[in-house]
Amino acid sequence: MKIIIIGGVAGGATAAARIRRLDENAEIIIFERSGYISYANCGLPYYIGGVIEDKEDLTLQTPEGFYRRFRIKAKVCHEVTDIDAKNKTVSVIDLKTGMRFTESYDKLILSPGAKPVLPDFYIENERTFTLRTVEDTLKIRAFIEENHPKTAVVIGGGFIGLEMAENLAELGVKTTIVQRGKHLLPTVDCDMASFIHASFRYRGVQLLLNSSTDKMSMIGDKVLLEIADGQQISADMVVLAVGVAPESTLAKKAGLELGVKGAIKVNSKMETSVPDIYAIGDAVQVKHFVTEQDVLISLAGPANKQGRIVADNICGLDSEYKGSQGSSVIKLFDMTVATTGINEQQAKASGYEYEKVILTQNSHAGYYPNATAMTLKLIFEKESFKILGAQIVGYDGVDKRIDVIATAIRAGLKADNLKDLDLAYAPPYSSAKDPVNMAGFVSENIKNGVVKQFYYEDISSLREREDVILLDTRTPFEYMRGAADGFINIPLDDLRERIGELDKTKKIYVMCQSGLRSYLATRILMQNGFDAYNFAGGFRLYSSIKNEELLSNRCYSCGMEK
Protein backbone atom coordinates (compact mmCIF):
# COMPACT_ATOMS: atom_id res chain seq x y z
CA MET A 1 0.00 0.00 0.00
CA LYS A 2 1.27 3.45 -0.98
CA ILE A 3 0.15 6.47 1.02
CA ILE A 4 0.84 10.07 0.05
CA ILE A 5 0.41 12.79 2.65
CA ILE A 6 0.14 16.43 1.60
CA GLY A 7 1.39 18.55 4.50
CA GLY A 8 3.88 17.42 7.10
CA VAL A 9 3.22 19.50 10.18
CA ALA A 10 0.96 18.39 13.07
CA GLY A 11 -1.69 16.15 11.54
CA GLY A 12 0.32 14.92 8.56
CA ALA A 13 3.38 13.92 10.57
CA THR A 14 1.22 12.20 13.20
CA ALA A 15 -0.67 10.23 10.53
CA ALA A 16 2.56 9.12 8.89
CA ALA A 17 4.15 7.90 12.12
CA ARG A 18 0.97 6.09 13.19
CA ILE A 19 0.65 4.34 9.82
CA ARG A 20 4.20 3.10 10.13
CA ARG A 21 3.53 1.74 13.61
CA LEU A 22 0.55 -0.17 12.23
CA ASP A 23 2.01 -1.19 8.88
CA GLU A 24 5.74 -1.80 8.54
CA ASN A 25 5.46 -2.47 4.80
CA ALA A 26 3.47 0.57 3.66
CA GLU A 27 5.21 3.07 1.37
CA ILE A 28 4.69 6.52 2.88
CA ILE A 29 5.63 9.81 1.23
CA ILE A 30 5.08 13.27 2.71
CA PHE A 31 5.10 16.36 0.49
CA GLU A 32 5.58 19.56 2.50
CA ARG A 33 5.59 22.96 0.81
CA SER A 34 7.73 24.66 3.46
CA GLY A 35 11.29 23.71 4.34
CA TYR A 36 10.36 22.02 7.62
CA ILE A 37 8.25 19.14 8.88
CA SER A 38 6.76 18.38 12.27
CA TYR A 39 7.46 21.83 13.66
CA ALA A 40 5.97 23.45 16.74
CA ASN A 41 3.65 25.98 15.11
CA CYS A 42 2.40 27.17 18.50
CA GLY A 43 5.93 27.91 19.66
CA LEU A 44 6.86 30.28 16.82
CA PRO A 45 6.13 33.58 18.66
CA TYR A 46 8.32 32.48 21.56
CA TYR A 47 11.33 32.05 19.31
CA ILE A 48 10.81 35.60 18.08
CA GLY A 49 10.69 36.78 21.69
CA GLY A 50 13.81 34.83 22.62
CA VAL A 51 12.03 32.54 25.11
CA ILE A 52 12.96 29.64 22.82
CA GLU A 53 16.60 30.35 22.07
CA ASP A 54 17.54 27.69 19.54
CA LYS A 55 15.58 27.48 16.29
CA GLU A 56 16.35 23.76 16.18
CA ASP A 57 14.02 23.35 19.17
CA LEU A 58 11.09 24.39 16.96
CA THR A 59 11.28 21.22 14.88
CA LEU A 60 10.38 17.90 16.43
CA GLN A 61 11.79 15.98 13.46
CA THR A 62 13.88 16.55 10.37
CA PRO A 63 13.30 14.75 7.06
CA GLU A 64 16.51 12.80 7.67
CA GLY A 65 15.56 11.86 11.20
CA PHE A 66 12.05 10.92 10.11
CA TYR A 67 13.45 8.54 7.52
CA ARG A 68 15.94 6.97 9.94
CA ARG A 69 13.28 6.39 12.58
CA PHE A 70 10.28 5.45 10.43
CA ARG A 71 11.54 4.88 6.87
CA ILE A 72 9.17 7.59 5.73
CA LYS A 73 10.19 9.87 2.85
CA ALA A 74 9.50 13.48 3.84
CA LYS A 75 10.11 15.74 0.85
CA VAL A 76 10.24 19.38 1.98
CA CYS A 77 10.01 22.31 -0.44
CA HIS A 78 7.74 20.16 -2.58
CA GLU A 79 4.31 21.46 -3.51
CA VAL A 80 1.45 19.32 -4.79
CA THR A 81 -0.26 21.33 -7.51
CA ASP A 82 -3.00 18.94 -8.68
CA ILE A 83 -4.83 15.79 -7.66
CA ASP A 84 -6.14 13.37 -10.28
CA ALA A 85 -8.62 11.41 -8.21
CA LYS A 86 -9.71 9.24 -11.16
CA ASN A 87 -6.20 7.96 -11.87
CA LYS A 88 -5.08 8.33 -8.25
CA THR A 89 -2.04 10.49 -8.95
CA VAL A 90 -0.74 13.82 -7.72
CA SER A 91 1.30 16.42 -9.63
CA VAL A 92 4.28 17.75 -7.70
CA ILE A 93 6.82 20.54 -8.18
CA ASP A 94 10.19 20.65 -6.46
CA LEU A 95 10.30 24.30 -5.39
CA LYS A 96 14.11 24.32 -5.27
CA THR A 97 14.81 22.88 -8.72
CA GLY A 98 11.56 23.57 -10.55
CA MET A 99 11.32 19.92 -11.56
CA ARG A 100 7.79 18.59 -12.03
CA PHE A 101 6.65 14.99 -11.68
CA THR A 102 3.66 12.83 -10.82
CA GLU A 103 3.28 10.32 -8.03
CA SER A 104 0.68 7.59 -7.71
CA TYR A 105 -1.14 6.67 -4.51
CA ASP A 106 -3.47 4.08 -3.04
CA LYS A 107 -4.55 6.38 -0.22
CA LEU A 108 -4.18 10.15 -0.07
CA ILE A 109 -4.22 12.27 3.10
CA LEU A 110 -4.70 16.03 2.84
CA SER A 111 -3.18 17.96 5.73
CA PRO A 112 -2.54 21.36 4.11
CA GLY A 113 -3.33 23.41 7.21
CA ALA A 114 -4.50 26.98 7.04
CA LYS A 115 -3.20 30.17 5.50
CA PRO A 116 -3.17 33.71 6.92
CA VAL A 117 -6.04 35.91 5.81
CA LEU A 118 -4.63 38.81 3.78
CA PRO A 119 -6.97 41.80 3.50
CA ASP A 120 -6.95 44.00 0.42
CA PHE A 121 -4.98 46.77 2.12
CA TYR A 122 -2.03 44.53 2.99
CA ILE A 123 1.30 45.48 1.41
CA GLU A 124 4.01 42.85 1.52
CA ASN A 125 7.47 44.30 2.08
CA GLU A 126 10.46 43.96 4.39
CA ARG A 127 8.58 45.62 7.29
CA THR A 128 5.24 43.78 7.10
CA PHE A 129 4.83 40.19 8.20
CA THR A 130 2.52 37.25 8.70
CA LEU A 131 3.29 34.36 11.05
CA ARG A 132 2.45 30.80 10.05
CA THR A 133 5.63 28.92 9.16
CA VAL A 134 9.16 28.55 10.46
CA GLU A 135 10.32 30.67 7.52
CA ASP A 136 7.97 33.47 8.65
CA THR A 137 9.44 33.22 12.14
CA LEU A 138 13.04 33.39 10.99
CA LYS A 139 12.22 36.38 8.81
CA ILE A 140 10.67 38.32 11.71
CA ARG A 141 13.46 37.49 14.13
CA ALA A 142 16.14 38.44 11.59
CA PHE A 143 14.40 41.77 10.99
CA ILE A 144 14.28 42.52 14.71
CA GLU A 145 17.93 41.60 15.26
CA GLU A 146 19.10 43.65 12.29
CA ASN A 147 16.84 46.72 12.59
CA HIS A 148 16.05 46.99 16.32
CA PRO A 149 12.50 48.32 15.80
CA LYS A 150 11.17 50.66 18.46
CA THR A 151 7.49 50.46 17.48
CA ALA A 152 5.24 47.71 16.16
CA VAL A 153 1.58 47.25 15.27
CA VAL A 154 -0.14 43.89 15.50
CA ILE A 155 -3.37 43.75 13.50
CA GLY A 156 -5.65 41.18 15.12
CA GLY A 157 -6.32 40.20 18.72
CA GLY A 158 -6.59 36.42 18.49
CA PHE A 159 -4.09 33.81 19.68
CA ILE A 160 -1.28 34.64 17.25
CA GLY A 161 -1.79 38.40 17.55
CA LEU A 162 -1.69 38.39 21.35
CA GLU A 163 1.31 36.08 21.56
CA MET A 164 3.17 38.27 19.08
CA ALA A 165 2.25 41.43 20.99
CA GLU A 166 3.40 39.85 24.24
CA ASN A 167 6.76 38.78 22.83
CA LEU A 168 7.38 42.11 21.09
CA ALA A 169 6.57 43.99 24.30
CA GLU A 170 8.92 41.73 26.25
CA LEU A 171 11.67 42.70 23.77
CA GLY A 172 11.07 46.36 24.61
CA VAL A 173 9.21 47.19 21.39
CA LYS A 174 6.37 49.67 21.95
CA THR A 175 3.45 47.68 20.60
CA THR A 176 -0.08 48.55 19.52
CA ILE A 177 -2.85 46.03 18.87
CA VAL A 178 -5.57 46.92 16.35
CA GLN A 179 -8.64 44.77 16.93
CA ARG A 180 -11.82 44.94 14.85
CA GLY A 181 -13.98 43.56 17.66
CA LYS A 182 -14.75 45.22 20.97
CA HIS A 183 -12.46 42.95 22.94
CA LEU A 184 -9.33 40.83 22.57
CA LEU A 185 -9.38 37.03 22.31
CA PRO A 186 -12.84 36.29 20.85
CA THR A 187 -12.91 32.84 22.49
CA VAL A 188 -13.76 34.57 25.79
CA ASP A 189 -16.61 36.95 26.61
CA CYS A 190 -16.29 40.70 27.16
CA ASP A 191 -16.41 40.44 30.95
CA MET A 192 -13.51 38.00 31.10
CA ALA A 193 -11.57 39.88 28.42
CA SER A 194 -11.46 42.96 30.67
CA PHE A 195 -8.75 41.23 32.73
CA ILE A 196 -6.71 40.66 29.56
CA HIS A 197 -7.04 44.30 28.54
CA ALA A 198 -5.83 45.48 31.95
CA SER A 199 -2.80 43.17 31.78
CA PHE A 200 -1.76 44.39 28.33
CA ARG A 201 -2.25 48.06 29.20
CA TYR A 202 -0.21 47.57 32.38
CA ARG A 203 2.67 46.33 30.18
CA GLY A 204 2.43 49.40 27.98
CA VAL A 205 0.66 47.75 25.05
CA GLN A 206 -1.75 50.17 23.41
CA LEU A 207 -5.15 48.75 22.49
CA LEU A 208 -7.19 50.07 19.57
CA LEU A 209 -10.47 48.20 20.04
CA ASN A 210 -13.48 48.43 17.74
CA SER A 211 -10.99 49.57 15.14
CA SER A 212 -10.12 48.45 11.66
CA THR A 213 -7.49 49.37 9.12
CA ASP A 214 -8.49 50.82 5.75
CA LYS A 215 -5.13 51.49 4.17
CA MET A 216 -1.47 50.61 4.56
CA SER A 217 1.37 52.57 2.98
CA MET A 218 5.09 53.22 3.36
CA ILE A 219 6.47 56.60 4.45
CA GLY A 220 10.24 56.28 4.35
CA ASP A 221 11.15 53.43 6.69
CA LYS A 222 7.80 53.56 8.51
CA VAL A 223 4.59 51.63 7.85
CA LEU A 224 1.62 54.01 7.95
CA LEU A 225 -1.79 52.60 8.86
CA GLU A 226 -5.02 54.49 8.39
CA ILE A 227 -7.70 53.55 10.91
CA ALA A 228 -11.36 53.55 9.88
CA ASP A 229 -12.20 56.56 12.11
CA GLY A 230 -9.63 58.74 10.35
CA GLN A 231 -6.78 58.28 12.80
CA GLN A 232 -3.30 57.36 11.59
CA ILE A 233 -0.59 55.33 13.24
CA SER A 234 2.95 54.59 12.07
CA ALA A 235 5.33 51.84 13.13
CA ASP A 236 8.70 50.31 12.33
CA MET A 237 7.02 46.95 11.66
CA VAL A 238 3.55 45.47 11.26
CA VAL A 239 2.44 41.89 11.96
CA LEU A 240 -0.83 40.85 10.34
CA ALA A 241 -2.76 38.34 12.46
CA VAL A 242 -6.40 38.84 11.50
CA GLY A 243 -7.06 35.12 11.28
CA VAL A 244 -6.55 32.10 9.06
CA ALA A 245 -8.54 30.41 6.32
CA PRO A 246 -8.49 26.72 5.40
CA GLU A 247 -5.94 25.91 2.71
CA SER A 248 -8.46 24.12 0.52
CA THR A 249 -7.53 25.34 -2.97
CA LEU A 250 -6.12 21.96 -3.98
CA ALA A 251 -9.17 20.13 -2.62
CA LYS A 252 -11.50 22.44 -4.53
CA LYS A 253 -9.59 21.86 -7.80
CA ALA A 254 -9.89 18.11 -7.22
CA GLY A 255 -13.66 18.34 -6.83
CA LEU A 256 -13.87 17.57 -3.11
CA GLU A 257 -16.94 18.81 -1.33
CA LEU A 258 -16.33 21.94 0.77
CA GLY A 259 -18.26 23.33 3.75
CA VAL A 260 -17.94 26.10 6.37
CA LYS A 261 -15.62 28.90 5.21
CA GLY A 262 -14.41 26.72 2.37
CA ALA A 263 -13.19 23.95 4.68
CA ILE A 264 -13.00 20.38 3.42
CA LYS A 265 -16.02 18.27 4.36
CA VAL A 266 -15.21 14.96 6.03
CA ASN A 267 -17.16 12.28 7.87
CA SER A 268 -16.35 10.92 11.33
CA LYS A 269 -13.66 8.68 9.79
CA MET A 270 -12.04 11.77 8.21
CA GLU A 271 -13.00 10.58 4.72
CA THR A 272 -13.71 13.24 2.09
CA SER A 273 -16.40 13.06 -0.58
CA VAL A 274 -13.90 11.34 -2.93
CA PRO A 275 -12.96 7.69 -2.27
CA ASP A 276 -9.51 6.99 -0.83
CA ILE A 277 -8.89 10.66 -0.04
CA TYR A 278 -8.85 11.73 3.60
CA ALA A 279 -8.41 15.18 5.14
CA ILE A 280 -7.32 16.35 8.59
CA GLY A 281 -6.24 19.41 10.54
CA ASP A 282 -6.94 23.11 10.13
CA ALA A 283 -8.37 22.66 6.64
CA VAL A 284 -11.33 20.45 7.61
CA GLN A 285 -14.84 21.06 8.84
CA VAL A 286 -15.76 19.23 12.04
CA LYS A 287 -18.72 18.83 14.38
CA HIS A 288 -18.63 20.91 17.52
CA PHE A 289 -18.90 18.48 20.40
CA VAL A 290 -21.21 20.74 22.42
CA THR A 291 -23.50 22.27 19.79
CA GLU A 292 -23.17 19.54 17.12
CA GLN A 293 -22.92 22.34 14.55
CA ASP A 294 -20.48 22.30 11.65
CA VAL A 295 -17.48 24.43 12.61
CA LEU A 296 -13.89 25.23 11.74
CA ILE A 297 -11.54 24.85 14.73
CA SER A 298 -7.85 25.42 14.05
CA LEU A 299 -5.97 23.87 16.96
CA ALA A 300 -3.01 21.49 17.18
CA GLY A 301 -4.70 19.02 19.53
CA PRO A 302 -7.58 18.10 17.19
CA ALA A 303 -5.20 17.93 14.19
CA ASN A 304 -3.00 15.37 15.93
CA LYS A 305 -6.01 13.27 17.00
CA GLN A 306 -7.40 13.34 13.46
CA GLY A 307 -4.04 12.20 12.08
CA ARG A 308 -4.14 9.15 14.33
CA ILE A 309 -7.75 8.38 13.37
CA VAL A 310 -6.98 8.52 9.64
CA ALA A 311 -4.03 6.18 10.12
CA ASP A 312 -6.22 3.72 12.03
CA ASN A 313 -8.86 3.66 9.31
CA ILE A 314 -6.36 3.29 6.48
CA CYS A 315 -4.74 0.37 8.30
CA GLY A 316 -7.97 -1.52 8.92
CA LEU A 317 -8.92 -0.33 12.40
CA ASP A 318 -12.27 1.30 13.09
CA SER A 319 -11.72 4.76 14.51
CA GLU A 320 -14.01 7.81 14.63
CA TYR A 321 -13.52 11.48 15.44
CA LYS A 322 -16.10 12.51 18.03
CA GLY A 323 -15.89 16.25 17.39
CA SER A 324 -14.00 19.25 18.74
CA GLN A 325 -14.90 21.43 21.70
CA GLY A 326 -12.21 24.08 21.23
CA SER A 327 -10.29 23.62 24.48
CA SER A 328 -7.44 26.12 24.54
CA VAL A 329 -5.00 27.85 26.86
CA ILE A 330 -2.76 30.85 26.29
CA LYS A 331 -0.05 32.58 28.33
CA LEU A 332 -0.26 36.36 28.24
CA PHE A 333 2.65 37.80 30.23
CA ASP A 334 2.12 36.38 33.75
CA MET A 335 -1.57 35.70 33.11
CA THR A 336 -3.14 32.48 31.84
CA VAL A 337 -6.44 32.39 29.93
CA ALA A 338 -8.17 29.11 29.14
CA THR A 339 -11.45 28.09 27.53
CA THR A 340 -13.43 25.02 26.60
CA GLY A 341 -16.76 24.53 24.88
CA ILE A 342 -18.69 27.64 23.87
CA ASN A 343 -18.81 31.10 25.42
CA GLU A 344 -21.86 33.13 26.37
CA GLN A 345 -22.02 34.94 23.05
CA GLN A 346 -21.98 31.63 21.18
CA ALA A 347 -24.61 30.18 23.52
CA LYS A 348 -26.93 33.09 22.64
CA ALA A 349 -26.24 32.69 18.92
CA SER A 350 -26.98 28.96 19.14
CA GLY A 351 -30.34 29.61 20.79
CA TYR A 352 -29.59 28.11 24.20
CA GLU A 353 -31.51 29.06 27.31
CA TYR A 354 -28.58 29.17 29.66
CA GLU A 355 -27.41 30.11 33.13
CA LYS A 356 -23.93 31.14 34.20
CA VAL A 357 -21.81 30.96 37.31
CA ILE A 358 -18.96 33.41 37.80
CA LEU A 359 -16.74 33.04 40.83
CA THR A 360 -13.37 34.25 42.00
CA GLN A 361 -11.22 32.00 44.14
CA ASN A 362 -7.57 31.52 45.04
CA SER A 363 -5.40 29.18 43.01
CA HIS A 364 -4.46 27.35 46.19
CA ALA A 365 -5.12 27.55 49.93
CA GLY A 366 -5.17 31.18 51.02
CA TYR A 367 -3.00 30.53 54.05
CA TYR A 368 -0.24 29.05 51.89
CA PRO A 369 2.06 31.75 50.48
CA ASN A 370 1.64 33.29 47.03
CA ALA A 371 -1.93 32.30 46.31
CA THR A 372 -3.32 34.19 43.32
CA ALA A 373 -6.88 34.91 42.28
CA MET A 374 -8.58 33.21 39.38
CA THR A 375 -11.98 34.01 37.92
CA LEU A 376 -13.99 31.09 36.55
CA LYS A 377 -17.05 31.45 34.33
CA LEU A 378 -19.19 28.36 33.81
CA ILE A 379 -22.03 28.33 31.26
CA PHE A 380 -24.70 25.64 31.32
CA GLU A 381 -28.13 24.91 29.87
CA LYS A 382 -30.90 26.22 32.08
CA GLU A 383 -33.17 23.20 32.26
CA SER A 384 -30.81 20.27 31.77
CA PHE A 385 -27.74 21.78 33.48
CA LYS A 386 -25.65 20.45 30.56
CA ILE A 387 -22.26 22.16 30.65
CA LEU A 388 -21.86 24.32 27.54
CA GLY A 389 -18.48 25.85 28.24
CA ALA A 390 -16.11 27.53 30.65
CA GLN A 391 -13.56 30.33 30.74
CA ILE A 392 -10.89 30.90 33.36
CA VAL A 393 -8.55 33.86 33.79
CA GLY A 394 -5.82 33.73 36.41
CA TYR A 395 -2.15 33.21 37.08
CA ASP A 396 -1.58 29.75 38.50
CA GLY A 397 -3.43 26.47 38.11
CA VAL A 398 -5.72 27.72 35.36
CA ASP A 399 -4.76 24.97 32.92
CA LYS A 400 -5.59 22.08 35.23
CA ARG A 401 -9.02 23.52 36.11
CA ILE A 402 -10.01 24.01 32.47
CA ASP A 403 -8.85 20.46 31.70
CA VAL A 404 -11.11 19.11 34.45
CA ILE A 405 -14.11 20.96 33.03
CA ALA A 406 -13.20 19.93 29.47
CA THR A 407 -13.17 16.33 30.65
CA ALA A 408 -16.50 16.82 32.42
CA ILE A 409 -18.05 18.09 29.16
CA ARG A 410 -16.69 15.12 27.24
CA ALA A 411 -18.02 12.74 29.91
CA GLY A 412 -21.49 14.31 29.84
CA LEU A 413 -21.45 15.53 33.44
CA LYS A 414 -23.92 18.21 34.50
CA ALA A 415 -22.89 21.53 36.04
CA ASP A 416 -23.97 20.47 39.52
CA ASN A 417 -22.01 17.19 39.16
CA LEU A 418 -18.78 19.21 39.41
CA LYS A 419 -19.28 19.34 43.16
CA ASP A 420 -18.83 15.55 43.32
CA LEU A 421 -15.43 15.42 41.60
CA ASP A 422 -12.75 13.97 43.87
CA LEU A 423 -9.88 16.32 43.05
CA ALA A 424 -6.40 16.24 44.51
CA TYR A 425 -5.82 18.64 47.38
CA ALA A 426 -2.77 19.98 49.17
CA PRO A 427 -2.30 23.61 50.29
CA PRO A 428 0.37 24.46 47.65
CA TYR A 429 -1.92 23.29 44.84
CA SER A 430 -5.54 23.87 45.73
CA SER A 431 -8.11 24.53 48.42
CA ALA A 432 -10.10 21.73 49.97
CA LYS A 433 -13.00 23.17 47.99
CA ASP A 434 -11.42 23.53 44.57
CA PRO A 435 -12.70 26.27 42.23
CA VAL A 436 -14.18 23.54 40.02
CA ASN A 437 -16.01 22.04 43.01
CA MET A 438 -17.19 25.52 43.99
CA ALA A 439 -18.66 26.04 40.52
CA GLY A 440 -20.58 22.80 41.11
CA PHE A 441 -21.77 23.94 44.55
CA VAL A 442 -23.08 27.22 43.13
CA SER A 443 -24.77 25.36 40.26
CA GLU A 444 -26.46 23.04 42.75
CA ASN A 445 -27.61 26.01 44.82
CA ILE A 446 -29.15 27.56 41.71
CA LYS A 447 -30.83 24.27 40.86
CA ASN A 448 -32.30 23.98 44.35
CA GLY A 449 -33.31 27.63 44.64
CA VAL A 450 -30.84 28.24 47.47
CA VAL A 451 -29.31 31.22 45.66
CA LYS A 452 -30.47 33.66 42.99
CA GLN A 453 -27.96 35.66 40.97
CA PHE A 454 -27.58 38.95 39.17
CA TYR A 455 -24.91 40.16 36.79
CA TYR A 456 -22.97 43.22 35.73
CA GLU A 457 -25.34 43.96 32.86
CA ASP A 458 -28.24 44.16 35.36
CA ILE A 459 -26.77 46.86 37.60
CA SER A 460 -27.51 49.98 35.54
CA SER A 461 -31.24 49.19 35.42
CA LEU A 462 -31.31 48.19 39.09
CA ARG A 463 -29.96 51.61 40.09
CA GLU A 464 -33.04 53.23 38.54
CA ARG A 465 -35.53 51.15 40.48
CA GLU A 466 -37.07 52.25 43.77
CA ASP A 467 -38.06 48.75 44.82
CA VAL A 468 -34.50 47.49 45.30
CA ILE A 469 -31.61 47.96 47.72
CA LEU A 470 -28.05 47.57 46.49
CA LEU A 471 -25.89 46.20 49.31
CA ASP A 472 -22.10 45.85 49.61
CA THR A 473 -21.08 43.43 52.38
CA ARG A 474 -17.33 44.05 52.35
CA THR A 475 -15.49 45.76 55.20
CA PRO A 476 -15.66 49.55 55.51
CA PHE A 477 -12.00 49.74 54.45
CA GLU A 478 -12.67 47.74 51.28
CA TYR A 479 -15.75 49.83 50.58
CA MET A 480 -13.83 53.10 50.99
CA ARG A 481 -11.15 51.94 48.53
CA GLY A 482 -13.76 51.54 45.81
CA ALA A 483 -17.37 50.53 45.44
CA ALA A 484 -20.06 50.28 42.82
CA ASP A 485 -22.26 53.36 42.54
CA GLY A 486 -25.51 53.10 44.45
CA PHE A 487 -24.42 50.33 46.82
CA ILE A 488 -24.70 50.94 50.55
CA ASN A 489 -22.29 49.26 52.94
CA ILE A 490 -23.23 46.86 55.70
CA PRO A 491 -20.35 44.43 56.43
CA LEU A 492 -21.34 40.78 56.50
CA ASP A 493 -20.30 40.37 60.14
CA ASP A 494 -22.65 43.21 61.14
CA LEU A 495 -25.59 42.18 58.98
CA ARG A 496 -27.56 40.22 61.57
CA GLU A 497 -27.45 43.13 64.04
CA ARG A 498 -28.26 45.73 61.37
CA ILE A 499 -30.81 43.78 59.35
CA GLY A 500 -33.54 46.10 60.66
CA GLU A 501 -32.03 48.93 58.57
CA LEU A 502 -33.23 47.15 55.42
CA ASP A 503 -36.74 47.42 53.99
CA LYS A 504 -38.25 43.94 53.73
CA THR A 505 -40.60 45.08 50.97
CA LYS A 506 -37.64 45.69 48.65
CA LYS A 507 -35.45 43.21 46.78
CA ILE A 508 -31.86 43.13 48.05
CA TYR A 509 -28.99 42.82 45.54
CA VAL A 510 -25.76 41.93 47.31
CA MET A 511 -22.10 42.29 46.31
CA CYS A 512 -18.77 41.49 47.97
CA GLN A 513 -15.20 41.11 46.72
CA SER A 514 -15.40 37.57 45.30
CA GLY A 515 -18.98 36.42 45.78
CA LEU A 516 -18.61 34.33 48.96
CA ARG A 517 -19.53 36.91 51.61
CA SER A 518 -22.39 38.18 49.49
CA TYR A 519 -23.68 34.61 49.16
CA LEU A 520 -23.57 34.21 52.94
CA ALA A 521 -25.41 37.52 53.23
CA THR A 522 -28.15 36.38 50.84
CA ARG A 523 -28.66 33.24 52.92
CA ILE A 524 -29.08 35.34 56.06
CA LEU A 525 -31.47 37.67 54.29
CA MET A 526 -33.55 34.95 52.62
CA GLN A 527 -34.02 33.14 55.91
CA ASN A 528 -35.22 36.40 57.43
CA GLY A 529 -37.91 36.89 54.83
CA PHE A 530 -36.01 39.02 52.28
CA ASP A 531 -35.88 38.46 48.52
CA ALA A 532 -32.11 38.51 47.99
CA TYR A 533 -29.79 38.09 44.98
CA ASN A 534 -26.04 37.44 44.84
CA PHE A 535 -23.73 39.25 42.40
CA ALA A 536 -21.86 36.72 40.23
CA GLY A 537 -18.14 37.41 40.07
CA GLY A 538 -17.80 39.88 42.93
CA PHE A 539 -16.42 43.39 42.99
CA ARG A 540 -13.16 42.14 41.43
CA LEU A 541 -15.03 41.37 38.23
CA TYR A 542 -17.22 44.47 38.49
CA SER A 543 -14.25 46.82 38.83
CA SER A 544 -12.39 45.17 35.94
CA ILE A 545 -15.36 45.60 33.58
CA LYS A 546 -16.10 49.11 34.84
CA ASN A 547 -12.51 50.26 34.40
CA GLU A 548 -12.53 48.90 30.86
CA GLU A 549 -15.73 50.84 30.10
CA LEU A 550 -14.26 54.04 31.54
CA LEU A 551 -11.08 53.66 29.48
CA SER A 552 -13.06 52.95 26.32
CA ASN A 553 -15.22 56.03 26.82
CA ARG A 554 -12.26 58.25 27.71
CA CYS A 555 -10.09 57.40 24.74
CA TYR A 556 -10.23 57.69 21.00
CA SER A 557 -9.58 54.53 19.03
CA CYS A 558 -5.96 55.61 18.64
CA GLY A 559 -5.57 55.38 22.42
CA MET A 560 -5.22 59.10 23.09
CA GLU A 561 -7.40 60.57 25.82
CA LYS A 562 -10.33 62.74 24.75
Polypeptide structure, described:
The chain is of the alpha/beta class and 562 residues long. It is built from 16 helices and 30 strands. It has a five-stranded parallel beta sheet. It has a five-stranded parallel beta sheet with strand order 9-16-10-11-12. A five-stranded antiparallel beta sheet has the order 21-22-25-24-23, with helices on both faces. Strand 19 and strand 20 (294-295) form a beta hairpin. Helix 1 runs parallel beside helix 8 (300-314) and helix 6 (190-202) packs across helix 16 (538-554). The longest helix is centred in the last third of the chain and has 17 residues, at 538-554. Residues 556-562 have low confidence and may be disordered.
Please mark out the parts with pLDDT under 50 across 5 or more consecutive residues, or reply none: 556-562
- For the secondary structure, the number of strands is 30
Q: How many DSSP helices?
A: 16
Global mean pLDDT: 94
- The helicity comes to 25-40%
Whole-number count of domains: 4
Which helices and strands occur, and which strands form pairs?
Layout: E1 2-6, H1 10-22, E2 27-32, H2 44-48, H3 63-70, E3 73-76, E4 78-84, E5 89-94, E6 100-104, E7 107-110, E8 114-116, E9 128-130, H4 134-147, E10 151-155, H5 159-170, E11 174-178, H6 190-202, E12 206-208, E13 213-219, E14 222-227, E15 232-235, E16 237-240, E17 244-246, H7 249-253, E18 277-279, E19 286-287, E20 294-295, H8 300-314, E21 328-332, E22 335-341, H9 344-349, E23 354-362, E24 373-381, E25 387-394, H10 398-411, H11 435-447, E26 453-454, H12 456-463, E27 468-472, H13 476-481, E28 488-489, H14 495-498, E29 507-511, H15 516-526, E30 532-535, H16 538-554
Parallel strand pairs: 1-2, 1-7, 2-3, 7-18, 9-16, 10-11, 10-16, 11-12, 26-30, 27-28, 27-29, 29-30
Antiparallel strand pairs: 4-5, 5-6, 8-17, 13-14, 14-15, 19-20, 21-22, 22-25, 23-24, 24-25
Helix pairs in contact: 1-8, 6-16
